[in-house]
Structure formats: structure tokens, C-alpha cells
């Protein structure tokens, strides 16, 4: 790496600024940092001689502060270092993660105010991360961020895979368009949601995935979002410059800070190979190492649940339709007339427990088990749930004992309805109740507008809450799967009990009108960059009117695509979301779901193109068994992969679950084939994938008996 | 009481409205309710043929609701009843309280919407209370109050004793003026405060005390403020009509309601004798009966504390001046350089414990004992205190054991700094810490702007919090004395562990520049209507520069006035607030403080004129010992009282602590006399009181030895 060199001004005019350079370990990425005229910090990024980030501003605008932290700086210190260590995640796509980067820490001192800000850059082979640090100092103690002014100046009108900027939801379908088209398409992108707040016609959310016309894949995101507001990006679509746009609080302020403090890391991933983006562990590597000493209680799980029947409208979360509204502790549910459609009743739950036990699943989730669902959203209701009082037909101890006898873990559900103060008031009691009744994992939800009223899902105040709930859960040895919370930013390295989030448009939307067929070819490039998603795949019946005649939604996916999701949508928490009876109709396809692992020692991305296809092979932790999966977007394609990931010198039986020739996500989604063939690590596969289709493969070492009956691929 | 009678329209035009009348048990008060043209509810109040409330509107304006709850009503039911029961408060001014009223409940049905609202009126001999009730019903479930539209139309330009309306503080000096002068005086009334938010040039707070030109005393307040926003009054000073003005939330809404629900009671007290206002128990009577089954742990207490030395600036709450700011759990206080002025150190605390034990006090309060005081206000700091981690020089267990050995209760201090989410997160741990370390009572504080940011001290969101903290304290058998919280509204009947509030301008302001000398002759008519005030009296050294040369504040009160406060400022929690050394300088005066009781079986108000003087006699619970006290306002006066409250046929020794002839709150505050005289229930006293002065008397049955040495009065 170079140190201090005099360099021509990055924007064409000569400055006597000391520019710094930082290269990735493999030398392909170069970051240049310099101070522009007036002491304004700038950075730029080049990958293999192609511009990734053109000279872009850095800094923060402060409230009630004439100077802000944008200019009048001098470089008073620079420190360079390298880091190269391996660490083992508790769960993940791979057994060991290499954390290898070159670092440059630039200390900036503001002349007039004598304030110090450090910008720390870490350059990995797959990208750059940088953050602002505010060390303990006399002249900077408490300050309020009016706006962060980090820019990402794009080198062209790239293609982007984006959702509209919003302070309250990420549950939109992705739009693929040029950056210049965002403005005209944003309103259409923002479909109706139970809680949504837009802020700019050219605002988009992170992580943002892009592809340039000269073959680069670029991803913008953040890592380690703790005690800070979530970052969106606002596009200046004249100049193609993104600028950070933080989520405001109720008063419009963007962050209350007290030095010493750090901002989250802003990340720029870049490669000419899309698979590198998916394989990158940079977001985790920028987070602090694990803070939980004994992690033996954190376990990946495959589960079913009393859920899809309510999502489709076949049954209800609510117990009764009798009252105009309910008040916990005052409404006497024992006197209420049951509506006869309540899904979370003991008998039905035991059916799911039986199904889970019979088919090798680890857990059963039940939603709608507790008092309060009759008017749980749309009323800004404060005391909406207490998280411990079951409905009359949900017998907590009977279910606890039955599940235990069957070797099944019950998964708790805490829908907060956005009433966050209420959740915090009850959270210790709720967590204790879980432990007393055999629940080790909780799916939490934040549906609807937030209380305290005026706050947004992604503000600093709420980011603080999600962290509070997570850290408290760790104290109780509870795993958390937080839906409608902020999208993850690698915090699961530090708190691996964060085993999932939703925080994007999940499978439920297939029952709310459907998602785009290529949705799942985008999500791993966007939402999954910071952590796994509880996507809840495994739907076999695509015509929802078959479950609920009043619901004409269609699941825009083939069965083979649904199977592939267990590979392509990595998560330590995987649901088989459909109803048991739908699985029983397709036992051969269901076999894959029964067989697939949820925790991995190795993963290899074989094919990837955002918005079009993703193919990945993974080796199960412990067993060493290989699986592969491919999801396809809008157009038919042939997936060409080699099985070179298999061990050399061995023969495997591959069971391939694929779209039938005439399969189509809309017109013929349930047409699939299952075939078994012999393969080795020299085999190649050319597999036809339907629109919205894909395939899934399970491998096992072939023994003599197997070899006899099968053909080679 | 009359039922349905046709009556000429209250505003001069004939309506075919059914008017209802409700009289007090003694017949002196008459309330008339009627519907005006358009089905608009109205009420009016007459006392002994004098107008108290001219015809005034009732109802609520709802958000996003065309109709609101203001008009289009018909009376679909009326119910009348009477109630007459005695109940015993756990602590109080009297042993038994009579709850005697006539009630009228009017059911109003809104024609267009078919919604039902009940207005319930209760008429006591000393005043009227009424509230809105929203029964469970199909057509009214969730609704948002845009503004409550309860009017109190005054019959003239009365004299009022008022403080400016404010969403965050009541710590203003009272202004005495005509209603018509409020507008021009409001800005001057609102002195600077660490958290303040005005809303109208003619807004005032409740309770509001007034005196009419035709000799009536009128008080407007509310009772049972639970899950609703605090009510201020906004004056239409053209027509002399007050209208309710609720405290808004962050978005400007005034209340989130779910039927079934009630508003608080709106109260109008009236008498031609000011003493009736002070003696009234109406506010308590309108609250629900006690909800705590075993109240044996709730005990009035007289206490001293490590507090005044910090208030005056003699010592500090903070432990160190070394850091630009502190972060709990990160700042290592064990390494910090002590500033040498930290009041809450073990040695100093033990001194106070010794002083308390030697002089018969029950408890010692200590502020500044816990980490975080270095930057506790002005920064909108979220994680400001944890309520359990002491400074290095405050030894929790040593102090606990020492206090116990001396028979002294330590009183805890929880300053929240307005960071309410933080307090709620820690409250269970904090309460448990208290019980583990011998603390049964806590003084809580809410200094500074509220977090969640944007909320105000008196909003529905915060009223809910104060109630949450109080009810949770009851579960832990903890007594609460909440400063800067909303002013009380009689809730101590239901939760008698609420032993105090500040929520007004207390003694500390005498060290912040001084309060008006007649301040204490107003407070019982205003702030104390809803519950006791922890006024922390007993200051003997009026020149604060003697404690802290940099503080030139002067306590605008004589010593005799300070002694009287133990009678006139009723509270189950009474502090002797000055430093032990100042009491030791005046042992004869201090004797009164040592002798005076804090809990009473009987109280008789002897003289009262708001803004001028209050004289009261009280009989101690248990001992039956009598005490009396008188506080005086700006002008010299002679207080004329009879001792008819004493038991007949007995002789008492009365020790009279009075202003010396030349005493004056400003120029000669420490001049007092102590004389012992013999009295009977036939004796009369004519006592000179200085400006800002008064007197205090303790009585004991005279024995033969006493009689010999003393003169008769």
C-alpha cells in the first residue's frame, strides 16, 4: 500500500491534499482518499481499472452546529494495518470464514473547532467498508446528526435492482431498471402496506444491487447497524450520485450521538462475477466477534407451523368474532363465542406436531395462540398483547408436554403490532414464560405503525429496541427471528441468537396477490447480504383459492423452484410452510424438504445473475452430504453446472427434482420430475428450468446396491 | 332532585330540550343539564343563587370523524342515585372521609351515528364532578380525541391564582390577577425551566383557583387522571369562558381511546368560605376505592437528606469533573479523579443517619449516589442512569447496615432525566435492588425533556407511564414520591403508595432565585387539591450565600413560616430540608420540627384566603396531640383564631413559635420567639405575623408541674 503521495486532485483541479491509497489483499481494488479544497474528505474506488465509486463526499451534517463535520479538516494521522484471521460461525453457509483485509485509518482534525473524526477504511478482496469514528474528546461530546452526507457517485446509469426508500417497510417487489428510471417508477413500486412512509421520489433502500454496462456487479449496504438510524440512499439522478439518507426520528432528527461512538460501516462490494457478491462474508467480517460465550443452545431448525392457513385466510388468528373490540384482562374469552375458524387450537397444533415428528422436522410454530388477535392491527393499540395469556382452546402445558414427548420444539410467536413500549414492558415475563414452557426460539413481529407514535420502524429509536430485545433474549438463551424489524447488517456474528429476520417481501405475499417470479433471484443479492431471511418456502399448492375460495392469489413459482429455495435462500431457520395435506399430495417432492439440511460446512455459488438465476451447492455440516439448488426468473433457461464440488474419486447418487418440460409458474406450476442418476465430480448437468422454476438436487454416496439400478448422468 | 321538566333555554331562546337538575345534599348547589338546539349538551352551576358556571358546552371533538361527540344527541336515559359512605384513608388529614353525593347519569345517543355517550354528574356539598363515559358498543370502538370541548363559562372577570399553561412543567410562581389580565402577564409568568412548552397566551394549568367579586371561591381541576391526557384550560378572554385544552402527543393528537372507557372527572368546587375548598375531599372521593389489599407497608415519614447541599451548590451530585462525558458501563469511575465535592459519600450519609436517629426522624434521602450524574441533563441522553450502580464512595451495603442499626429507613432516589424508556427498562431491577438494600420508598424525578423525544410530561403517553411505575411499585411494596410528574388528581385513594409528588414550584426554587413570599398561601388552593406535595420545608438559613458563596439566592420566608409549613402544606412525607448544622444553630425552633406529626386523625381549617394566609389545626393520629400552623403572605397581619378544636375541660400547654415583632422574610427572617402558655378550648389567640411569616403551635396536655410555671394565654 502507498502512504503519503502528492496526487492530482481527484476532480481535476490541483490541491495540495495528501491523498491516501488503500488496496485489497489481491490488489484488484484500489481506494483513494483525499481532502479536497477546504479540507473536505473524499474517497473513490476503482476495480481492475474500472471506476466503481467516482470521487464522493464524506462527512456528516450536524444539527445546530455551524461547522458540521464536512469540511475544514486536515489529516493529522494515518495508520495502516492488515488483518488475516479465520473464525467459525455458530451456524452458516460455511464452516470457517476468513477475515482478510487491509486497513487505513485516517484521523481528521477540524481546524476551527479542534474536533477529531476518524474515518476507518477496510479493503477486502470483494469490497470496501468504511465508517466514521468519534473518539472521546473534549470538543465533541453530544451531537445530533441532521443528515449523514456519505456519497456513492456512480460511474454510469447502471441497472439497479431496487425497492423504494421507506421508513417502515421493505416488503415491496423489486423493480429492475436503470438508475435514471427510478423516479418514474418509484410510486408504482410502493404497493400498499400496513405501515409505510416514503421520503423521496428517488429514494431506495439498502442493500442496493447494481450491474454496470461494463460488467461490474456493485452492492451498497451497511454493516453493524447499532444505535444509529438505518441508511437509505437518495439518488441525484442528474449526476447519478447516491447520498446516504438516514431514517429520521419523530422530530426529524437523524441520530443522537455521544462520543466515543462509531457509525455503522458503509459497504461497497464489487466484482465482475456475481457469484462473489453472494459468497462474500464481508458484512459479517465487519461486525464484532461473538459476544455469547456458550452458544450450545443456538441451533438451526427446520419447522412447520400453524401459519399458512391463516395467511391464506383458511383459518383465523382471532378466536372470536363476537365483540366490537377487546381489552386484555377485561374481555372474558371464556364466555366468548368461538368463531370456529381459530387455527391455533390444541387439536390442530397436535396434528402439526405429529406431522413434524413423522417427517423429521425440528419444530412447530404457532401463531394466534394468545389473547388479543381480534383487533390486533390498524388501531394504534397500546396494550394489544401480553404474550403470556393463551386463548381458551390453546392448552399451553398440554402442548408443551405433547411436543416434548414427540421430540419437537415449539416455536413461540410474539406479534408486537408495532406497540414497542408494550412489548418491552412484557418482554421479561414473556421470555420467562417461553423457558418455562419449552420454547427456545421466538418469531417476533412488528406489523403496523410503531408506538411510540410518530416513530418509524427504521429509526435509531427502533434500532435500539431490536438490539435490546435481541441481547435480552441472549441472556435467556432464546433465539430470535424478527419480522418487520430492520433488515440485518451482519449483527448475527456478534449475537448468533439472531437466527433470522423477515424484513423483506416474503412468501406470505404470494397469498396476498403474488410476488414477481424472479423475486427470489434478487433477494440473495439484496436482502440477504446482511443476514439470513426467514423466507418460509415450500409451497406446493399455488392456487390459493383451493385453500380459501375467497382468496384468488397465485403463488408465482413452480414446485421445483420452491424446493430450490432451501438452498438458494440460505437460512438456519427453514420452514416447510404449506399445509400438511398439500405435502401429503406430493410425497416424492416433499422428500427433498425432509432430506435437505439447514446448516452447512461449505457452499459454492455455481451460477448467479441478479434478477435471473442463482445456482448453489452446499455441503451439510456433520454429515458432509451435498445438496444443490437453482432458482430461475422470468424466462426459460438451461442451467449448466459441473459437479466438481463433489469429492474426487467417489460415485454419488443424485436425486434431481426439476421442472417438467411444460412447467410454468403460472399455468403449470405443479409439474415436476424426480429422477435419480449416478454422478461423480466430473459430471456436468444441463438442466432446463421453467419460467419461475428451478431444480433441487440431493446427493448421497452411492453404494453397490444403488450403482446397480441407476444410470449415469 | 327534579327529573324531566320543560325549561326555558339556558341561553335565552326556547328549546324543546329536556333539562335535568341535580342538587347537592345540602341543597345549596344546583346543576342544570340540557340539550341545546341541535342536540348539543350543556350544563350550568348555581351556588346559593349565584352563577358559578354559566351555560357551558360539553363534548369531544374526534379526529377524522365528521360528527365528533358534540351535537345531534338525544337523551335516551337518565338515572339518578345517591351515595353516602365513609371510608378510611391509609394516611391523610383526617381519619375518616365522608363520600356523600347525589348523582345524575345522562345517556346521550347520537342520532346519525347511533353512538352512545354517558355524562355522569356527581354533586357534593362542596362542588360538582362530571365525566364522559363511552360504554362498550358496536358503533364506537377506537377513536382519537382531537380536543375535548368541555367549557367552564365564568360569570365575571374573576381574580385568579394561576400559572401559565405548559405541557412540561408546573414550576412557575403563581400570578394573582383578573382573568382579563392573563394574556398580558402569561409570558412573564413562564420563567425559564429545564423543560417547558407553552401553547396559548391565555392558557393556564389546573387546578385553577379563583375568587369572584361576589365572594365565591371557585376551583377547577380534574380527578382520576388515568390513561388520558392532562387537562389545561384555555381562556376565551372576550367572553370569560375556559375550555379544556388537553396535552397533545407527538403528532398533535390528544388521546387514543378504546371503548369501554371513561374520561377523568372534571371538578368544580365552590363555596363562600375558602376553608371549604381546602377541607374538601371531593377529588379523592371521585377516585376508585383502594386497590391495595395489605397496606401495612405504607407509612408516613419525616426525613432529612443529602440534597439541599447540592441544590444550593455547596456540594455536587456528580462524583468527578474529569471527563467530557460519561457512558455507563464504559466509564471506569474507579479510575476517575473525585471532584472532592460529592455529597453522596458514605461518611456524609452516615452523618445524616446519625442526625436523623438523634432527632427522631424516620428516614434519610440521598441524591447523587449512582453513576451518571456528570452529564445527567441537557443532552437528551437515552441510557443516562441504571439506578443500581453506586459511585465508588457510596457503599450501599455499609449504609444499609448502618441505617438499620440506627432504626433509620434509607429513601431511594431515581432521577430518570426524562428518559422514560430507559427507566422502564430498568425499573424491575431497580425496585428489586431497593428491596434488597432496605429501601421502601423512592423519590423519582423527570427533569428535562422527555424521551421518547417529542413527548411531553403531561401527555397521555406519560400519564400512562407514571401509573405503570406506581402500580409496579405497589407490587414490590414500594412507596413513590414522583417529582416533575403530572400533578396528582386523587389517585392516592386507589393507590395509597403514591405518598407524594412535587409537580409544582417547591422549596428548591428558593435556592434558584427565590419564590414569592405568598407562594405557600396559594399552593394548597391549587397544587394540593389533588394530593400532597413533597414541598421539603424547614429551611432555617435564608441567605444561601452562607452555604455557597456563589449562590446569592434568598429564601423568601421567615423561620416561623417554615415551621408552619409542616401544618399548612399537608404531606405524609415531610422533609427537614436544611443542613444539620443549620438546625443545630436554632435548637429551640428545631424542636417543633422534631415534635410535629405527619399523619392526622383530624384537621380543621381555621382561616384561609388564597394568596394571603392559611391557618390550620390538626390532631395527630394515634397520640391525639394537636398542632396548629399559619402561613402569611406579603403583608403583616394579625391572625385571630380560637382554640375550640381542643378537648373541652382540659388544660393544654401550647408552645407558640412566632415571628418576632420586627421579623421580615427579606430583611430579618431568622427573628422568632418561642413562648409556652396555658390554654383551653375557650382560649383565643391574636398573633402578629410578619410578611412571609407565620407561626406554629404544638399542644400537650398540661400536667400539674407544667401548670405551675406557666402563664395563661
UniProtKB/TrEMBL annotation, chains A, B:
Domain spans labelled Glycosyl-hydrolase 97 C-terminal oligomerisation: 599-700
Source species, domain of life: Bacteria
MF-aspect GO terms: carbohydrate binding
Domain Glycosyl-hydrolase 97 catalytic: 307-504
Cross-referenced Gene3D superfamilies: 2.70.98.10, Aldolase class I
SUPFAM superfamilies the record matches: (Trans)glycosidases
Domain (Glycosyl-hydrolase 97 N-terminal): residue spans on this chain: 22-289
Cofactors (names): Ca(2+)
Record keyword Oxidoreductase present: no
Keyword Nuclease: no
Pfam families, alphabetized: GH97_C, GH97_N, Glyco_hydro_97
Signal peptide: 1-19
Keywords (A to Z) from UniProt: Calcium, Signal
Subunit structure: Monomer.
PANTHER family, alphabetized: GLUCAN 1,4-ALPHA-GLUCOSIDASE SUSB (PTHR35803:SF1), GLUCAN 1,4-ALPHA-GLUCOSIDASE SUSB-RELATED (PTHR35803)
Protein name from the UniProt record: Alpha-glucosidase
